[in-house]
Please model this.
Amino acid sequence: MNCYVEHYEISSHDVDSNNNVRPSIVARLFQETANHQMRDRGPTYYELFSQGKSYILVRMSCQILKEMHPYDKVDVSTWISASKGATFKRNYIMTREGQEVARAYSEWTVVDVNTGNIYRVDEVDYSNYEMDDPIEMTLPIKFHFSKDISFEEVGEKIISYTECDMNKHMNNTFYPDMLFDFVPEPWKRRVTGYVIRFMKGATLGKTLKVLRAKGDEVMNDGSNPEECWYFKTLVDGNVNVEAMVNCKF
Model:
């Protein structure tokens, strides 16, 4: 496999009350590795940003196959796949002692931070990045909620300064933990997989309304999940994200 690899250690601050790694940590290690690839292969994230360009996550599908604990040493691999139009495809695998513990597939756009215009793939230079075939996922990358699903409002979330990135939006890696907080009694569960579609950014001080529904069946994420929760978050009356989250007890 032609991929870029980085090495990490799960810290004692990366886990929940059950001593299991939080789902957002997995997303951050994946994306940190992607940023390292950009740093080492160029152009860096900051060089792109200085040109008025920014990668914006559109979809992410993530399988967390094994529990991870403090001081576990993990290797994270990332690579891009052949992309077209305005969709940039990126893949990730995380291993511990040579055994796969998580994998993910994501789709991004590159946006002009000043005008909001979207760049095509051939307008962004990523020729130095490691590239290979797209990863195989059992989770979907695209989904649509039926109009028959009855969502209930379960709470609100105010976007704080420390959650915002250079785009002045809540960074996408905060969402897995935020959604998991709205699963009933999360301390009795762990996340085994999730799919998120990002539709509208949530900026500093905005209030998200969180809507939830219990799924009729679970997604196949390779970990024998026991339940699936559907989520919608709204900002200023518009859909911010839609997500499906698998859990097991």
Q: What stands out?
A: The CA atoms of residues 156 and 209 lie 5 Å apart.
